[in-house]
Amino acid sequence: MIQKKLLIIGTVWVEPNSSAAGSRMLQLIELFLKKHFVITFACPVKKSKNAFGLDSLGIQEVNIQLNDASFDEFVTNLNPDFVLFDRFLTEEQFGWRVLENCPKAMTILDTEDLHCLRKTREICLKNNIDFSFDELKKQEITKREIASILRCDVSLIISIFEMDLLQSVFKIDEKILYYLPFLFDKIDEYQKAAWKSFDQRKHFIFIGNFLHKPNVDAVITLKNDIWSEIREQLPEAEVHIYGAYVTQQIQQLHNKREGFIIKGFAENAKEVVENAKVVLAPLRFGAGIKGKLSEAMICGTPSITTSIGAEGMCGNFPWNGFIEDNFSDFALKASLLYKSKSLWENAQVKGLEIINNLYDKEKLEEPFINKIFEIQQGLEDHRNQNFLGSLLQYQTLQATKYLSKWIEAKNKN
């Protein structure tokens, strides 16, 4: 069997314990390894102490330079069959170089989430205006991200909501989009029996990477608008705030007397979640599907979140807890879920149904691999049908290319 070569270009190194994006990338890597791909992971930034050692999986790790012709030599020598861009920013920076040096390599964009959707919601929230698709279309980041999706041979979309958005609002041909959510093992009876019971658990938790702005805003919202109401009803309860890269702004919210405890980075996020009674996630903006909430379902931990938090995550299945946008109702439902064993156990079962029906990797992996092989085998025809993509390759990447070459020349001088 001829092994296919895959080059993954990461915006950052893979940190599965720090973010949902890191977990997602590791899931993709494990899938490609299972299908016997030879993988090289390249990244232009310095590795952090939380980075996963991909070399332990037999993956070559390579540091690459932005705006530097050394990448051209590297990618030409590697000559990959597939190139996967982790987020649209890497496609902007390296897409034209891949096209020039390896024109037959199939390009895949893993969007992680729609950055433009998250950013527009943040802008609307800051300016106290209602989010709308018209507002989304106005943003520069939207034009950049949609252009990146159009330029790639296929883009992986993690949320069904975002799939619908791209097709209905931006009229993107479904042939260049592929819905691929998180990839999980089914929860079996053995795992379910190992879950800690209602009486064995205590405390609320929030968990999330604090380089991610929606998480910072959610914890501040939890402290300012929700937690005091929960404490009125549950005076002994605590909320433990976990996450990588805690900022000073978050650390200052620590108040042991109020039961608002900043814990910081969790070495074992799964262990933290499976010991908690309820996950709180009052997200006011964001996009994609939320790792903290899927992790809660896998650990049998009910959660309360907002409509943005649950967006695109549960299909037609009921949520494993409550979805509330009004913060007084959020606090009330949190207290109810924390106190009621029957309500809590019922919510736990709903989470199992969501994971087993929507995120079963046994159902999702094979069709995806078959699809990318099918596209690769008819790549020229696939690209001919994507006229807007070829137009953007010609126009926008020429601008990106010459800007990059100018920066490269400037750096040499």
What does this protein look like?
This protein is α/β, with parallel strands linked by helices and 413 residues long. The protein folds into two domains: 5-184 and 361-412, Rossmann fold (3-Layer(aba) Sandwich); 189-358, Glycogen Phosphorylase B (Rossmann fold), CATH 3.40.50. The chain contains 18 helices and 13 strands. It has a seven-stranded parallel β-sheet, sandwiched between helices. A six-stranded parallel β-sheet has the order 10-9-8-11-12-13, sandwiched between helices. Helix 9 (213-233) links the parallel strand 8 (204-207) and strand 9. Helix 3 (88-101) runs parallel beside helix 6 and helix 9 (213-233) packs across helix 14 (327-339).
Number of strands: 13
Given the C-alpha coordinates, what overall shape results?
globular
Summing up helix and strand content along with how strands pair, one would put the structural category as alpha/beta
| Uncertain regions spanning at least 5 consecutive residues | none
**Range of strand content:** 5-15%
Number of helices: 18
Tell me the CATH topology of the largest domain: Rossmann fold
Work out the helicity level.
40-55%
CATH architecture of the largest domain: 3-Layer(aba) Sandwich
Q: Which whole number gives the mean pLDDT?
A: 93
Could you tell me how far the N terminus lies from the C terminus, measured between alpha carbons in angstroms? 48 Å
Largest sheet: 7 strands, parallel
Rg value = 22 Å
Using the coordinates above, name the CATH class of the largest domain. Answer: Alpha Beta
Spatial strand order of the main sheet: 3-2-1-4-5-6-7
